[in-house]
Amino acid sequence: MSHEVHARLEGVTRVYPAVAGNPPVHALGPIDLDLRKGEFFSIVGPSGCGKSTCMDVLAGLAAPTEGNVWFEGKRVDGNVPDGIGAVFQEDASFPWLTVEDNAAFGLRRAGVDAAEIRRRVDYALGFVGLKAFAKAYPAQLSGGMRQRVCIARTLVLQPRLILLDEPFGALDAQTRLLMGDELLKLWRETGATVLLITHALDEAAMLSDRIGAMSARPGHFLETVETGWSRDRDSRMLEGETFGHITGRLWQMLRSESQRAMGHEEGAA
Ligand SMILES: Nc1ncnc2c1ncn2[C@@H]1O[C@H](COP(=O)(O)OP(=O)(O)OP(=O)(O)O)[C@@H](O)[C@H]1O
């Protein structure tokens, strides 16, 4: 794999200012992260450690308090860079649009021609398994299906860097595995770089080239684990021995951090 850097966080911290008598919250960092072009990188870490904040900073949705963010050699300074597509934790589908119009939304705004929109929407709805629901409205779908609409809406933009914050959180375990396989297929076909935030260690272990394990808040990387998988991996390797070693290693690092995050200190500072 090429080690060309696609995106970089350099000494990044994020502090949320004091609000209504509450003290400022040091949410993240300082952290350094080099995302390699074309790699699949996951971030795991205890609840509230700053994972979503990290993604917001990279996506240009929040400015870092300190440090620098780079994408394709250019500074990301509070603007969403062209070429980055993000899917957030919460369902952000538009209730007044059908599934296909939701998926087409960004392309229409960008003035893409109708035939190209149709082609990309067809592909994206096929990817998320919602072709049969193209004419349905979000209210007629389950929470997990609505989340898949949001994934489709991002994919049609053909991002070169895809940021996914717990995109499968609302899905049942079996659908999660299948979506994971589809995501790997998409990653192979498009050559995009993927940054996935997940609390599911098995999901990170199955999907990633590298996994960054974060400490409790303010999050910094404790260690980056290389999985060593080939590009043509899929969920069938869940049965293998290596998979257990990776999840075991991640949990070893994260157990005490998760206890700290929950306020159950176990000799940790
Ligand atoms: N807008 C905000 N104002 C103040 N504090 C915030 C804000 N957003 C997040 N925080 C705080 O920053 C910290 C990190 O939040 P963040 O959402 O990045 O964590 P996370 O690792 O994604 O959490 P989870 O895994 O539970 O989704 C938390 O303590 C949170 O309370």
Automatic annotation (TrEMBL):
Entries under CDD domains matching the protein: ABC_NrtD_SsuB_transporters
Pfam family, one: ABC_tran
Domain of life assignment: Bacteria
GO molecular function: ATP binding; ATP hydrolysis activity
Domain (ABC transporter): residue spans on this chain: 7-241
Annotated InterPro entries: AAA+_ATPase, ABC_transporter-like_ATP-bd, ABC_transporter-like_CS, ABC_transporter_ATP-bind, P-loop_NTPase
Keywords of this entry: ATP-binding, Nucleotide-binding, Transport
PANTHER family reported in the protein's UniProt record: ALIPHATIC SULFONATES IMPORT ATP-BINDING PROTEIN SSUB, TAURINE IMPORT ATP-BINDING PROTEIN-RELATED
Family in the record: Belongs to the ABC transporter superfamily.
Protein name in the entry: NitT/TauT family transport system ATP-binding protein
Organism (species): Saliniramus fredricksonii
